[in-house]
From TrEMBL:
Keyword Transport: yes
Record-linked InterPro entries: Aquaporin-like (IPR023271), MIP (IPR000425), MIP/Aquaporin (IPR050363)
Gene Ontology molecular function, alphabetical: glycerol channel activity; urea transmembrane transporter activity; water channel activity
Spans through the membrane: 37-63, 69-89, 119-139, 170-194, 206-224, 257-277
Top-level taxon of the source organism: Eukaryota
Subcellular location(s) of the protein: Membrane
Protein's organism: Seriola lalandi dorsalis
PANTHER family, sorted: AQUAPORIN OR AQUAGLYCEROPORIN RELATED (PTHR43829), AQUAPORIN-7 (PTHR43829:SF15)
Record's catalysed reaction(s): H2O(in) = H2O(out); glycerol(in) = glycerol(out)
Protein's name in the database: Aquaporin 7
GO cellular component, one term: basolateral plasma membrane
Family affiliation: Belongs to the MIP/aquaporin (TC 1.A.8) family.
Keyword Transmembrane set for record: yes
């Protein structure tokens, strides 16, 4: 009898709590972007801006400081940590590609619809261009003090390399093209591995650090030939900015017309790298039923977002 009364009281208290919650009116913010394209575009633009400000800022500090405020490693750390911060800014909204080669590869392998590709590319170009302008404004006096007001692309006091990549004097266009294809291939191969829930992905919540370390690793191992652009939008937008800001058309003529290599080679490398991982690893995972017991349910939960995305970018994050 006593147990029945206690149970009745419990049911009544639960019903009361539910009714009280139903009576609460949830208020939305005054500004609420419902358009998914706009939300994704803004997030992608902002995270690209954050990544580029830290990356270009680290280069500007090293160059204008003439070694007093960092060395080559500082640039690698700046871009690596910048990527990590960028993923924190936009990772859950746009996937934080920050790289047209990544977006192109995701479209190629069906992880992003092609109709979204122009949105991503425009957002990345905008974020990169604005970041270049910001860094130029912040370091304006330092740049002009360093070069004496003579903005040059090559030479001892060249400063165009703060914003875009240029090949080493010994590097031919063919070798530079291969360098960019290979660097981007390694980037996408490892990104595919980090997001492969059936292999050994980055631990939940550690993805920004993992991807940032990957960019750092590429920089300290494959960066000396041409500055490891491995990103079309990262390179062309600041290059256009420098052409407008005073460096002139030399930014396109330098390095035997180097400018097109970071634009064309990375998408090719991205597809090759992701394709190699998919062909040699991802396609050969055993069925979940063979993984055994409780592991099946765990993997099913982890891969659910990839199978049934709730929005257009739920399966974009890399």
């Amino acid at each position: 009898r006593r147990e029945e009364e206690e149970m009745k009281d419990l049911v009544q208290s639960v019903e009361l709590g539910v009714s009280q919650r139903k009576g609460i009116k949830a208020t939305r913010p005054k500004v609420w972007l419902k358009n998914e394209l706009v939300r994704v575009g803004l997030a992608e633009s902002l995270c690209t801006y954050v990544m580029m400000v830290f990356g270009l800022g680290s280069v500007a500090q090293v160059v204008t400081g003439q070694g007093a405020f960092g060395q080559y490693l500082s640039i690698n750390l700046g871009f690596g940590l910048g990527v990590a911060m960028g993923i924190h800014v936009g990772g859950k909204v746009s996937g934080a590609h920050m790289n047209a080669a990544v977006s192109f590869t995701m479209c190629t392998f069906g992880r992003l619809t092609w109709r979204m590709f122009p949105v991503y590319v425009f957002a990345q170009l905008l974020g990169s261009f604005l970041a270049a302008g910001t860094v130029y404004a912040v370091y304006y006096e330092a740049i002009h003090d360093y070069c004496g007001g003579n903005l040059t692309v090559t030479g001892v006091k060249a400063t165009a390399g703060i914003f875009a990549t240029y090949p080493a004097p010994y590097l031919s266009l063919l070798a530079g093209f291969i360098d960019q294809v290979f660097g981007t291939a390694m980037l996408l191969l490892c990104l595919m591995a980090l997001s492969d829930q059936k292999n050994k992905p980055a631990a939940a919540g550690s993805e920004p650090v993992a991807v940032g370390l990957l960019v750092l690793l590429i920089g300290i191992s494959l960066g000396s030939n041409s500055g490891y652009a491995i990103n079309p939008t990262r390179d062309i937008a600041p290059r256009v900015f420098t052409a407008i800001a005073g460096w002139g058309a030399d930014v396109f003529r330098s390095g035997n017309g180097w400018w097109w290599v970071p634009l064309v080679a990375p998408p090719i490398g991205g597809v090759l790298g992701a394709g190699v991982y998919k062909a040699l690893v991802e396609m050969h995972h055993p069925p979940l039923s063979e993984q055994g017991g409780g592991l099946v349910e765990e993997l099913e939960e982890e891969t659910a977002p990839l199978e049934k995305p709730k929005n257009i970018c739920a399966n974009v994050c890399v």
